[in-house]
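Lay summary

Proteins are chains of building blocks that fold into shapes. Our project writes down both the chain and a compact code for its shape. Here are two examples, one after the other.
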Amino acid sequence: MARLKARRSRYRFTHRLASAAPAVLVIAVLVTTIVGSSLMAARVIGFLNHVTGGAPSVATFAQVVGVAEPPAGSIAYRLKHKDPNPINILVLGYGGAENDAPYLTDTLMVVRLDPVTHRVAMISIPRDTYVAIDAWPASSGTTMKQKINAAYEIGTDDSHFVDNSLKRPEFRGRDGGGHLAEDTVGRVTGLHLDNYVAVDFKAFRDVVSALGGIDVCLDTPLDDNSYPNYRDGYVAGGIHYPAGCQHVNGEQALQLARSREAIQPQQSSDFGRARRQQQIIAAIRKQALTADGFSKAPGLMTALDSNFRTDLTVDDLSAIYNWSKKVDESAGILHYALTNENLLTVGGCGPPSAGYILCPNDPTYQMVHGWVAQTLPPIPVTDSHAPIQVVWGGYPPSLADGVTNLLKPYGFQVADPLHPRATRSTTVIYDYSQNQWPGLSDWLVQFFGGADVVQPTAATPAPSYITPNQGFVVYLGHDYGMRWYNCASQRTC
């Protein structure tokens, strides 16, 4: 079995810091700003050749400015022609030269673009998810199980792994790391990843600094006493930001994007971090598109040149930028996270030597696949804000909390779950909505993998411990618990 050499990351803490990388929309904005400000400069040609892996041709520039039709099947083509199938891009954030394990990815995020509805879904994958990394063909006899953050490193840095000569050809070379990370994350999520973007901490800081800083507004203060320094420790005294609008430099923007141990609950939650990152993305885009921002193309190229890599083409990046201008900043971006508070659990799928790892409740990942497939639901679903409550009388009680957490990102009014002693064999959805949200009950049936929908009446009431909520109450049955843990393959069920 191939073994990963023991190496420590400077960002190795009990709670890993995530979401360090700017989203792919920001990269598209920055690259398009550079192209638009000095399209034919030799420096631009060299920059694009380096970060995208191929020098742009005259035909490519014609596509960027909208003169020529993009190649059929490309992202630019799919966006232009409103492909009904979402575009899935993997965004990777890694420590880079400031880290003693430079290619381990602290951030793995799937960004889904819906060409039809102009919405974006961002799905964070924890770096500690323990998976098989299939970089070698079955005939080689080489297998490896590691944390998912090693996939990019295994494909990028050949000097630290055995059997590199036997690696599959698509996982070697310039884009080998990105393609291996795509393959690995794709098997976890059930998605085909179209392309990848990889950027390190230094690039993020330098981009913001090259733009002269950005303006960010916080709803509440942010005080984080456990923010990491660059020496395997923590910033003395922590980091502290007041509520309100403030101008921040690159290091401060990185702190705001990464902080996850704030003492304020609103800032330490997944939603709070996602909201800050969205504000930072919008601020970078706004600054990059100002007249002053266009003048800073040389600085942006310097910031990204050695610390940003992608297999997206220039016309794809330009198309993403133009398409993203129509994305509603408030309702058009959906935020999700796969965590041990929903479909993962701590430990149980690897040896003690693996350290802190996260494992799927369903080892086949079918539950994860089904949930990820629902991350771009029909617009009426997210617009409904319907009241929803989960009921579960089985064991373990935490299953109800996990399902409740899965429902929160859709914008529902999600109540705390109920834990009655009574159990059901099959799942039922009690519909108290009086048809306020047509089609929502059908979507819930699909979300829960099939369930009976019942409209309680005096003749057929719901259990007395369920309070009508003018929305929906989902009473999970033993059938759903079997799927949650994939009991068909586990003796413990």
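And here is the second example, written the same way.
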Amino acid sequence: MNWPKGWEVFHQANQGICIFNCKLKNMYANEKAKLILKSIAPELCRQFKSVCRRFIAMVKVQEASLVNYSGMLNHHYDVIRFSCFSFYSEEQIFIMVVFDYRTSNDNGLAAGVTFTPREQDIIQAIAAGKTNKEISKMLCIGFETVKSHVRNLLAKTGTSSRAELISKHCHLE
């Protein structure tokens, strides 16, 4: 396969790596990415593609030479952690997406633990580094309600801190 110079280093990466041109045409996907994209839940796949489209739109609007965006998507127990980067090669803009996929079997949570959609929103916000006050404003719910959700999440997951909750939920190492 003929990749642009230097891209062959991505082939053996432990994370999924996709590279798109600015029209969202997939220019490269390593073996891990191909495997992950085949195995993820359809809902997560749709969310993932939507993130890529939004990121490309953001890159087209910004004047900066390098733009990046990171986040987490989840559906039931399945989680995709991703980072998107823009870069120039041969005078073209490219988007690199580096991602991990964790299934319910990988994420370290006890069997039978489920999260409501609101709890998933709270976990995502915590993972993004938001404070309770910021989560309250972001989700249009009361500050005390956020505190209650966080307490319940800690109890439900058997964790004692926000960092441990995210580590256990996202299987961070």
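What can we say about the second shape? The two ends are 33 Å apart (CA to CA).
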